User: What shape does this take?
Amino acid sequence: MKKIFFAFLAASLLLTSCDNNESKDELRPAPDPDTHYFVNLTDVVPDAILEIRYFGTYNFVGSRIDGYLQPTALMVRQAADSLRAVSEDLKAQGYRLKIYDAYRPQRAVDHFVRWGKALDDTAMKQYFYPNVDKSRLFELEYIMEKSGHTRGSTVDLTLFDMRTEKEVDMGGTFDWFGTESHPDCGGNPETGEYRPNDTITAEQFANRMILRNAMLRHGFKPLSSEWWHFTLKDEPFPDTYFDIPVTAL
Assistant: This one.
């Protein structure tokens, strides 16, 4: 009888050990208390198309960025609600929103800073900054130690044309380091008046204005150096820089 008991005990311990090992493989970090401020953007704006560039390798660094654990987008609730209003506005015009980035953890910004200081790493130069020497990226403020994205109310986005089923031509790519990305390239964004030039066409400028005007109508403010970048005017955490990872909540 003792032999049977000890054999049963040993088998039980072995099964418990196997169960523990499987659990360890599935364990995830405990939820950060800050996550209750955030929502999955597509839960609020279900029509948004996600192309989270920093989860992949097609970005100015050329590798996945620290803190992007899944190709999803997070925002604080107030910003997501305002973006839903933008989405409804633009859907009525035949467009959907395409999101490149939303909330960005501080560890991702730190990754950008480390990369910016590694002057010999220019693998993606021809795609994102062919006309700018990498040594000037901090001086020109293309790379900074703090980002509005980290406060949870900023989004990088463009338009998707539902009729053509293609991304709308904005006359430049997301994260292009150069004056071509400035909203005033080719015209006056305050009035929408196009100025003939050799950089972008009247149609491309008009496309930028469609996005810009919709964002401004629903409580967002633009950035003077990036046509794709907008921040909620009344952002709830103007002085907080979060560092929770980007993963589905």
In short: The CA atoms of residues 98 and 158 lie 5 Å apart. The first helix runs from residue 2 to 26. The chain has one domain: 35-232.
